[in-house]
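This part of the workshop introduces the protein records we will be handling. An example says more than a description, so a record of this kind follows.
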Amino acid sequence: MCGIAGFFNLKNSREERERTIRRMTDRMRDRGPDAEGAAFYAFPAAGGQGEDASCDITFGHRRLAIIDLTETGAQPMESRSGRFSVVYNGEIYNHREIAKTLEDEGKILPSNWRGTSDTEILLEAIEAWGMADTLKKCRGMLAIAVLDHETGQITLARDRVGEKPLYYGFVNGCFVFASDIGCLTEMPGFRNDINRAVLPLYFIHGYIPAPYTIWQDIWKLEPGTMLTVDAPYRYFDPSEELDALQRKGYTAGSARSGQGHTYTVWWSMRETAELGLRHPFQGSFTEAGEELERILTASIRRQMIADVPLGAFLSAGIDSSTIVALMQKIAREDGGEPARTFTIGMREQGFDEAPIAAEIAAHLGTRHTEKYISKEDALQVIPKLARMFGEPFADSSQIPTFLVSAMTREHVTVSLSGDAGDELFCGYTSYFSIRRIWNKMRGIPAPVRKLTSAALIGLPAVKREEIRRTKATLLAAGRPIDLHRLESDHDPVIRQIALPVSGGGALPHKLTQFADPDPHLWPYGTEEWECARESMLADLVFYHPDDILVKVDRCAMANSLETRVPLLDPDVLAFAWSLPTEYLVERVTGGDGSTDYVGKRVLREVLYRYVPRELMERPKKGFGIPIEQWLLEEPLRSWAEELLDPERIRREGLLDVRVVEKLWKDYTERGSWCVQIWYLLMFEEFMNMIGERGAA
């Protein structure tokens, strides 16, 4: 695991370029504390004239050594022929199989390998097969930049689901990229403006969805996408190409070209889902459990390969417990040491899962480590968050994620995680809510629903009461995916937090760009659960890469810990989407005759082969902190009131002071909590950080 950075055509001396790349790589030292490297290239630029007749290219790298700990794994790295140079962040779990294929095809002799790193194998594969075909053969996570010395082209690429970050754009006319958006602010004379158009989206989600970032002229590369730049000395605005790809749902193989650059989609989550739905699994439920266990075991076995100590996060949940159970099975089969597991606990009532996790670990026989954290431990993390994420990000579980990563790093360098189980196997309760609400309202004609919604919202009693307003807003949904969107965007006050952008409207909500469904795949009238599955797909395309994976990557890498997610293996993804909904959802009848539904049915089937059902069937407490309570207590209350000071917000000129004051007053005086309060505080912490940088 590493951090990468680079820039093109910085019209300064070699010494200044060296200082600049050093500042950029120092900014992400935690991503790679073991080594650093830089490389400088210069060659004629195709079509360049005058000052553009030559192009200087600089690559930088920070290394966290996981596989091949020797110098033969150092970066930047050149291919054996010298045609390609690369900086790469990630792990390719099947790199040995790729190396064997290259040898079998006569692309390289076994004796010609310089070392055993996946970087070298990836680079030689790119030379042999090209970038897109190589990526399709890879199982793993990556963000990569490749320079073709023959053509002068630069290609950036990102893994299928977005486990590894990659930012790119322009600073003072220079094309730049990095794993950490903060690195781009280290460019000489960084003066990019805040992208005010993204602020309404941030205050809906608590994060800035790709491809946007907080800075103008800086973007996130979407998962499963490549960007090839023919002329890195020329500015381009990718908005038109990105909008077109978004409208098409980022279909695999689609490409959009602009002046001197091309976006190519090499893998699509949506198409993976559609393929699974068109070719459903034909076996019994028991056979589905057996097949899932086989596929998931193979994924975990691949991801347990490392030349450094490895363990796993363990909560009291189904997902992480299943990963750990199969890790322990693999360790026993291979005659290895027991799996190492890590849990944090909290003394606050309703937030402590450590005792249950300890019971699970004891039953499985892992080498378990737990640590109880205090409110003070959590408070010490808050000042680090703005720099850690580099742009506003406000999922409050970022705090315990950082703390469990810090504790885990004291013992191992790599940790497996159970993320993606909810999105793949229908685990979130919101999916059941959407299904219930849609089934109640779908019989009413859409025009009637919209008119009724508008009439209800206008009533004074509805305006005053949030629950009634929410229900009235949801009634206007034209499709189930609209219910999913409106869950976080039902209150008009949210869109009023940021001041309007003069001369242009706000960007559309991310889910409004979700491609229209194929009626043969999403037959709402015949399969009552398909509305939930569309929401699952939306979360895998938007929420999971932009929130969950961002949170895990930044918090772990801030502690120089590599995290791996076995449930995101392409075989697991494809199989999960092929399963009938009844294999995901179990109907449960209560003692009073009431009916409820429980998700992750097939995943539980796998887990219960290793852990007793009664050990797992307890209320899930979630992985969070009581931030709603803490903000009413000192010292957080004073910290919050200082950040939300009206004069401060008025000077910044980005937010509506009256709306911010109303939200804070409703919370402190009437107990009306909304997550946008934490979003506001994280935004103002970010503004603090860039203000201090400017003052320095």
